[in-house]
Amino acid sequence: MKIAQVIWNGRVTAAIMEEGHGRPIPEHTVQDLIRLSERENVSLVSLASQHATKHKEPLKPIIPIFPSEVWACGCTYETSASFRDAEHGTREGFYAYVYREPRPESFFKGTARVCVGPGQKIGIRSDSKFTAPEPELAVVLGSKGNVLGYTLANDVSAWDIEKENPLYLPQSKVYNACCSLGPVIVTPDELTDPYKLDMTCTITREGKTVFEGAVSTSKLHRKIETLVEYLFRANSIPPGSVLCTGTGIIVKEENALAPGDVVTIRVPEIGELSNPAAIVQ
Ligand code: DO4
Ligand code: MG
Prior knowledge:
With 281 residues, the protein is of the alpha+beta class.
């Protein structure tokens, strides 16, 4: 099942998406559905089917969830670890270490405050000269770390700030409009194998493609349950939080995001997440 949020009767409303149309779930956001499903111990899929209207309408997905918290993993693809080590140049293998060792890198990416949905502007910090998209598979989590569904994330990052000193990571990662999510949440009964997804990313500038990248999630070096297990150690994550699983697509400095660029991330099983970039103060 594909679950989205749409604007319906002027309100943010959860919906089941079928062939580009939506069946609204009146009086519920996706967070409401997740809380209700935990309270009543009923699966999200059954709850959505029970409460959705029978008729389909042409509805456009907005951000699929206002996440309680967003966390992100890093250096989960070899390309991300080796690029960062090459860029950084201070301590040999700083990033390779977390790629290799049992404990993964995870960091706090923010809350719904910093998240945007399809079509909304993603942020370039005014004090960054090299901001890049990080296209990632993301999971929506229940309170016990159960995967409720999969979506796409753009972990937009000011790489020059991270490169200056890794202790600046929170400033490179967390700022206004630093995270895009969408277009839908695909539940695990429909997306049965998250390790065989083909992901592409393009950046277009004034209608011309200036960057194209691709990766298969088969290159993800960790199991999602391992990332979730570490995240939940001594850390009670609220239901309806999102975990981004890391980027395998690396954008070089010559393709640093400029205002007006459009970043499009695609995974056929999930859809397309497209956002224009803009300077944020
Ligand atoms: O280590 C810095 C962040 C890495 C990251 O966000 C990624 O690999 O996706
Ligand atoms: Mg990332």
